[in-house]
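Slide 14.
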Amino acid sequence: MTAQVLRALVVEDDHSWQQILSEILSDCSLAVDVAGSLDEATLSLKSQPHRVAVVDLSLSPNDHNNYDGLRVLDAVRRLDPNCRTILLTGFATVELAVTALTDYGAFTFLRKESFHRSQFRDIVYRILVSPPNLSAPTPASAATASSSAVKGQAAPQKLPNEKALVVEDDAGWRSILEELLSDAGFQVRTCAGFGDAFGYLRREKFTLAVIDLSLQGSSLDHPNLDGYQLLTTARAEGIPAIVVSGITEPEEIQRIYSEYSISAYVEKQAFDRAAFRRLVEETRQAQFSSSELSALTDREREVLDLLAQGLTNKEIAEKLYITTNTVKRHLKAVFEKLDVHTRSAATAKVAGDNRPLA
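Slide 15: predicted structure.
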């Protein structure tokens, strides 16, 4: 899957500030679009989605009474509801700042005269890991693709009594993950910290865990990584885990995949509801296949693994030192237990399982 490119919009009529803001946002791994007026900003908002917009209050040089920036904030709310806005200006009164925050939904307000790069970077980071807007409409292309993907296909297979555990200390993210998993048919338990999560894992049986790595009490300088301990527990209990985290270092993500055998890793900065639903469904189907395969005897599994390698009945018989009739008998049992009727369908069941081939 191609990585999603996150975009930022700078709405500023001063060229020097355009350069400063674009440089910092680019350093935050964002692709930057620049607009110098309300009309240019509106056009950019209509052309593609943005994760953050930095908006100057006055978009007319030397006109302290120009408040087009507020109209840009309103356009962001209407046209790009997943975009968080930062109001940046040298002219605003306290009353205007409050209006921007309360009436126009700005994430925060910064004064140019007291601007600090480090503070701005921290705000951008907090926006990138903040929950997306759950009520934002799904793009038509994504909805069409989703509809096409399931059209004419059987309903997804599910395990009985599916229960998911969500471990996330941010209330907004908890709400989003709970709603998405509930919509997928899971009974959901949510908690904010290690203690509650560990208690749930001891008391109840889960078929999926969605875990944030950095939980309550964490900071960028001294992160609380209780989530790692929960991944260890989930793995020991055989519970598939999906990580949803703000940690983006490739080496660390690779290590987590390797050491904790997680099903998927989702970066909060690039969170997409449709993609998350797909990951949940893929994890569900892999677990369903694994559950089916667990019904096979060791010998039946050996026969199926060799079948998946492309061996004929005669070759399987020679490999296992049994007769071809015995191979046929084992395959008949395999087909019945997996509810399939062809060799290719039986082989497909092995593809999503994690057990090594014989």
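Speaker note: Strands lie at 7-11, 31-35, 52-56, 84-89, 108-111, 163-167, 187-191, 208-211, 241-245, 264-267.
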